[in-house]
Specification:
Radius of gyration: 21 Å
Distance between the termini: 27 Å
Strand content: 15-25%
Bound molecules: flavin-adenine dinucleotide
């Protein structure tokens, strides 16, 4: 147990938990939860702290599963793997690969914990794939009373659709069972295009490729496409050169531009054009888990919304127009991704094929006016926020957007009757007014 300041990846969320625990077994997790429940003390759970929102914030107890990592069980024939919930996606990729398996899809970084990534509905891109939580076929949870529950389609099935994306409010997930694919290699092509052409050919790009996404740049007509497909080619042996270009150069040059923009925000539109002009055209082949991920060393704040796939083109055109009309001082590209709808109660892609649009602002630059106005556009099209990213919604606006909101709420109350897993941010989101010991 240790007491120290905690902050998230962006540095925006900072708190000082009274205790930080790193349990090494299921029994230890149960003990920590039972003691907290008896003392009526709140608990939050942290993965690797890559969420932008206040999900993890606590001045009470923080539990990290950093010491509960690795594979527990693999069934190669069935393509199933059970892992400790604290395992980082990067570690998981390597471990699965050793057993001839891989996750079917991933987001664009690989440093989150598998529990944290799934708990917020983290997603990649590809119209044939749901977000990462759709790969979860079972999990083990320590509830707010310290009870250990196995949850899947067949064990406690009434809880399963709530538990796949739970924001850490149903309890501590300690194990996750994933449906995997036989290991595969991917080829990614980075291609430059224009906004109009990308939008015109969007359906073609989405249907003809395994994974398609693109960036558009404020104040520029340039887009950068990321087109990814299966390949039988072996990984290219360009290790250090590739690392130097992709990680050192790309992040370094971009950081210099970001600092310039921060010092001279009125020049952001010019910086954005420069970033667009520098968008690279290249091809890479590697094992799937190494292709999905990029290294992000430049820190930023982010808002990302899910909108219905059918409305996507109107939304992105509105976003582009509004940035130019209002002259927002922003030079960060906008990321556009596409996912299949699913049946997970708190999934932003619940019951609809979806597009995700993400807007970013360099750390230290003013973002509120920009994000709020972008959010207005997203909301006008039935937008649902990414749970791990910034948004300004409350229970009233959220409950109407999630058909299973009330059902999730019931499960939450059943598994955590005292609300020990809620912080102020989550209370606002769930419209809860519970007070524990010493709180007003
Ligand atoms: C640079 C960057 C790139 C990103 N790229 C993407 C992307 O491509 N796609 C995308 O969708 N998102 C992306 N994200 C968002 C990120 O994937 C999510 O915020 C994710 O939740 C972070 O995982 P984490 O392990 O850091 O979890 P944390 O941020 O630490 O926690 C997230 C939530 O999970 C809960 N949680 C964590 N562990 C457990 C557990 N064991 N049991 C119960 N609850 C738990 C926490 O309580 C919290 O509510 C990105 C974020 C950053 C900073």
């Amino acid at each position: 147990m240790a007491k120290k300041q905690w902050s998230n990846w962006s540095g925006m969320v900072v708190c000082e938990p009274s205790e930080i625990h790193f349990p090494t077994s299921e029994e230890e997790v149960v003990k920590i939860v039972q003691q907290a429940a008896e003392a009526k003390t709140r608990i939050r759970i942290v993965g690797t702290g890559h969420s932008f929102s206040h999900l993890v914030y606590t001045n009470d107890i923080l539990i990290s599963l950093d010491k509960l990592k690795g594979l527990i069980d693999v069934d190669k024939e069935k393509g199933e793997a059970t892992v400790w919930a604290g395992t980082e996606i990067k570690e998981l990729g390597a471990l699965l690969f050793e057993h001839g398996l891989a996750q079917e899809n991933l987001g664009d970084i690989d440093v989150q914990s598998i529990a944290g990534a799934t708990a917020t509905g983290t997603h990649g891109t590809g119209v044939a794939f749901g977000n990462i939580a759709t790969q979860v076929i079972g999990l083990t949870l320590v509830t707010g009373t310290g009870e250990v529950l196995n949850i899947s389609d067949t064990e406690n099935p009434a809880l399963f659709k709530a538990a796949q994306i739970s924001l850490g409010v149903l309890g501590v997930i300690i194990k996750i069972k994933l449906k995997c694919l036989p290991a595969y290699n991917l080829e990614i092509k980075l291609v430059k295009s224009t906004f109009n052409e990308t939008i015109e050919k969007l359906d073609h790009y989405n249907q003809e490729n395994r994974n398609f996404e693109f960036y558009n740049f404020p104040y520029s007509e340039t887009t950068q496409l990321r087109i990814t497909n299966l390949t039988k080619k072996p990984p290219a042996k360009d290790g250090f050169k590739r690392y130097f270009n992709d990680v050192v150069m790309e992040n370094g040059v971009f950081w210099v531009m970001c600092e310039f923009s921060k010092l001279f925000p009125t020049q952001s539109h010019k910086v954005s054009k420069l970033v667009a002009a520098g968008a690279v055209t290249t091809t890479k082949v590697n094992n799937s888990h190494k292709i999905f991920a990029t290294v992000r060393n430049v820190r930023f704040n982010e808002m990302e919304y899910n909108v219905p796939a059918d409305d996507y083109k109107m939304v992105i055109k509105d976003i582009k127009k509004r940035i130019e009309q209002r002259k927002y001082q922003v030079h960060f590209p906008i990321e556009n991704r596409f996912v299949k709808g699913d049946d997970i109660w708190l999934s932003p892609a619940y019951d609809r094929d979806s597009a995700y649009i993400a807007v970013h602002m360099y750390k230290g630059m003013e973002y509120k006016r920009y994000f709020r106005e972008m959010e207005e556009i997203f909301m006008a099209y039935g937008g649902r926020p990414h749970w791990g990213k910034m948004h300004y919604q409350t229970a009233e606006s959220l409950e109407t957007r999630y058909p299973k909101w009330e059902a999730f709420h019931k499960v939450r109350k059943q598994l955590d009757p005292e609300g020990i897993f809620l912080n102020d941010y989550l209370k606002r989101m769930f419209g809860e007014k519970t007070f524990l010991r010493g709180e007003k």
